[in-house]
Automatic annotation (TrEMBL):
Record bears the keyword Cell division: no
Any Pfam family hit: Rubis-subs-bind
Protein name stated in the entry: N-lysine methyltransferase SETD6
Keywords linked to the UniProt accession: Methyltransferase, Nucleus, S-adenosyl-L-methionine, Transferase
Molecular function as annotated in GO: methyltransferase activity
Sequence intervals crossing the membrane: none
Annotated Acidic residues bias: 43-53
Compartmental location: Nucleus
GO cellular component, one term: nucleus
Domain Rubisco LSMT substrate-binding intervals: 4-121
UniProt record, GO biological process: methylation
Lineage per the UniProt record: Eukaryota, Metazoa, Chordata, Craniata, Vertebrata
Length: 129
């Protein structure tokens, strides 16, 4: 369901791997009975047109059902815990001109990437809280 990398791609405005995330959340939030029925229907093609045509925009994430929100929230927290520093530490380093300039160009670029990733993850936390 998730693909080879086992990750979902989140953007500023929407989930870029929306189909994978949508199906994964749907399956993981099903009861055993619902999953059995879903599987017996040769499942994945039986979705309603409304579900197929909806995108996982930020607004849609905030309207997820409570179990899906909880699962996504907990997953984002686990992802954030995998970083060595938090968002504030990255922001402080970006704001400290002297410390920032001591970093190599590669370290500066990595800092910007990490900071952007963490901001997006914090945004998702706010949406599904």
């Amino acid at each position: 369901m998730v693909g080879e990398e086992g990750a979902f791609v989140l953007g500023w405005d929407e989930v870029l791997t929306e189909e994978e995330l949508s199906v994964t959340l749907k399956v993981l939030c099903m009861s055993q009975e619902e999953f059995k029925e879903y599987k017996e229907q040769d499942g994945w093609e039986e979705d309603s047109e409304e579900e197929e045509n909806s995108t996982l925009s930020n607004e849609a994430l905030s309207r997820l059902k409570a179990p899906c929100k909880k699962l996504l929230y907990d997953s984002v927290l686990l992802t954030l815990e995998s970083y060595r520093s938090d968002l504030k530490a990255e922001q402080d380093l970006l704001n400290n001109k002297e410390a920032y300039e001591k970093l190599s160009r590669r370290e500066q670029q990595a800092l910007h990437v990490r900071y952007g990733q963490k901001r997006i993850l914090h945004q998702v936390l706010d949406l599904v809280r």
